[in-house]
Structures
1.
Amino acid sequence: MADRSFRTFRRALAVVFLVAAIALLPGPSVAAGDGSTTLRALQMNLCNSGRAGCYTGRSVTEAAATIRSGRPDLVTLNEICRDDTATLRAVLADVHGGGTVVAAFQAAGDRPSGDVTRCANGQPFGVGLLLHLPGRHPRHTVRSGIYPAQDAIDPEERSWLCITVPGVVRACTTHLVAGSGPVALAQCRHLLGTVLPAIDDATGYAPTVLSGDLNLRLGGAPDVRDCVPSGWSRVDDGAVQQIVAGPEISIRSSRPVSLHGTTDHPALLATLTTHPGSAAVPA
């Protein structure tokens, strides 16, 4: 059944490319008769540096189990070591059993050394992104960087990461600063208001999903809504993890998923649906 579902979606996606409509990605996704497509997105902060008090050494194993049960198309990862990306990429590829899983990692900077922030095991520490795509060797681009605004007290310089499949989807993740609400807001506005338009100019427009630990809350001071553009939709885990979707995408459902004490955050799993040529339904 899974193989037949994948072949059906691949045929539908080929039609979408021919008519230049906007679609999202496969896996457990379903292409509807109106051209819309469903995408399952999973956000996790794994606290896997080995240095923080929330470290347990078990979060990557729990993340793998969550990927297997949730069968997402997009996985965004915060507070990970570089090799965690490859480990969980293999899990996502096994879950889908076809197509290609694109993986990317971006380290946080380390202000005192001028190098990258490192995990206790010596690997670079930062954010990761996994995206399941149909077919072999799909055309995509990776963009990443360090924010110009940083918390002067925090030696870790926060970063952002995006994968763009031109005309299909742009998936981004970030872990914003925790100790300063105004700086987190400035970073969020920079990503959504400066970085994404620049990527549009470089690679062409694509419907965008941002998923990550923004360290901004609904009703907080500042409020996460202060950085979400008009026409975009948003859901959260009840705290600081957010999934933000552009105007062609509605967020159909979302729920926190327990990671059973292996990290200090739940996972956040959401089902998104594209609406080609229309605005998103506010969440």
2.
Amino acid sequence: MSFELPPLPYAQNALEPYISSNTLSFHYGKHHNAYVTNLNKLVEGTDFAGKSLEEIMKATAGDSSKAGIFNNAAQVWNHTFYWHSMCANGGGKPSGALAEKIVTDFGSFEKFVEAFKTAGATQFGSGWTWLVLRDGKLTVEKTANAECPLTDGATPLLTMDVWEHAYYLDFQNRRPDYIETFLNSLANWEFAAKNLADAA
């Protein structure tokens, strides 16, 4: 059973004017698709054929001899999670149990925003910024390249891609503006809230 490029959860122009359909045509149609194609080639005929993305990621994380398999599997997973971490009319503040837990664990929503912006802006080179549940507490984490908190025991709730191809066509080198836009207009808090509820 080979992996397939999962459909976007919205139309390719649904995130405009914040993320353009042009960006999604490259990011989803070219980059994400290439990770799927590469992964299928790498696992064909191996013990990983037929396993889930999560199983492959956990089995290959930190193993330099399997870096190619890990990188492509994790990037397929990370990108799929990222598309769901955004929605039209997103952003702003969450509500309900997620909002309460953010205040409990960060001190205030504003302190969470500050931590998320700092993590995104200070991730050197390519990588990801995450809101995760780790040991029962919400934290903001950043990972390099294809790394994912899922492989070391955390539960991802929301992610923001800070690889340049995620934002360069729309924001050029202004990563802080992209981060601000993600939080203000794109973050899918309902998705994050469901992930938190499912982890309980």
3.
Amino acid sequence: MIDHTLLKPESTAADVVNLVEEAKGLGVLAVCVSPNMLPLQNTGDLVVATVCGFPSGAHQPEVKAAEAAQAARNGAAEVDMVVNLALVKTGQWDAVEADIRGVVDAAAGALVKVIIESAALTDEEIVHACGRAEAAGAHFVKTSTGFHPAGGASAHAVALMRQTVGDRLGVKASGGIRTPEAAAEMIAAGASRLGLSGSAAVLAGF
């Protein structure tokens, strides 16, 4: 269930090599790295994931689509994209959906997770954003980038996202999940994937 994640801007290629080796030892599902680190080498059975329009989401749709296409060419099997929060906050839902669909179409079959930055949204906005992600063909909705000042994942948001998408989409909880208790709370709320930078400590707690 875990995307073992390293998205700090100052992370080096050596850091990513270490991340991959740690991920193999932990038995996690995937590694998630910045797009400039692709392609990855010696990943074994690990799924390779990257981010798109990260972390603000305030990119032109064409730029997000091009970034997703390049990521797929560079070996990403999964792409975690950030919605345009300004469009969400102003209720421009057709534009939100079009932005997501552009990435889905460009990702060339890669699984697309849509980061809605749930801590910055109202419940109504969370529901609408998840609905538009599903309509656009996304495969997952995801709580957070981990970089927004409003905060990261909450069990309330995860539960609301799961309620909205049912069993049709995955729900990824990410951002600030640092303890086994927090991880268990997210899973109980409906998360089917966890984005963790401190995977070893969380797993050790279990």
4.
Amino acid sequence: MASSSVNLEEIPSESLMNELLRRMKCAPKPEKRLILIGPPGSGKGTQSAIIKDEHCLCHLAAGDMLRAAVSAKTPLGIKAKEAMDKGELVSDDLVVGIIDEAMKKPSCKKGFILDGFPRTVAQAQKLDEMLERQGVKIDKVLDFAIDDAVLEERISGRWIHPASGRSYHTKFAPPRVPGVDDVTGEPLIQRKDDSAAVLKSRLESFHRQTQPVINYYSKKGIVATLHAEKPLTDVTDEVRKVLS
């Protein structure tokens, strides 16, 4: 035990106080286990940050967890790396195992937001089986529904200043001079992923894979469909109503 008290002594008082206040604020909150489903550009990332803070949940993004497990060289991470090195897909069982590990962190005590998983019905079933073994279940699936045409306008109008990361939008936040950064006067670029053609193929695969997952959870009566084309604050209000 002595070693942990030494570690605490090395932590700045401010950090300890902030963590203590966070835990006191989070203690009375009910547990929640959420899945967020939505196409690229639907505002899922923005809302998950708000939900995470308001409900004291941890944010589990499948890709990030996989990379973290690989770099930490956990037993599951080592197996995942072997598959990736061979150019194979990481098996559903491995990903569910990595989620299982991640859920044990103190920050996940009140529950989690799962993002980017499950992408298929088979993955959803494996996830449910794992949670059932722990005596818990998914409480809500938030479906960020948005018309493809709205997404295309949102994403294909995006222009970036590469050096600073400043972003503009031809319709919603245009630069003062078309194609030029306001601050430096340097040219703006469009990311490959933001082209209409790339978006179209990403959306096609999203709908093909994910619609069955939404149907699977709909049968359990836990899907809430959000109007993700609305302004950010309106979507936040919708989310709050669903989760209250």
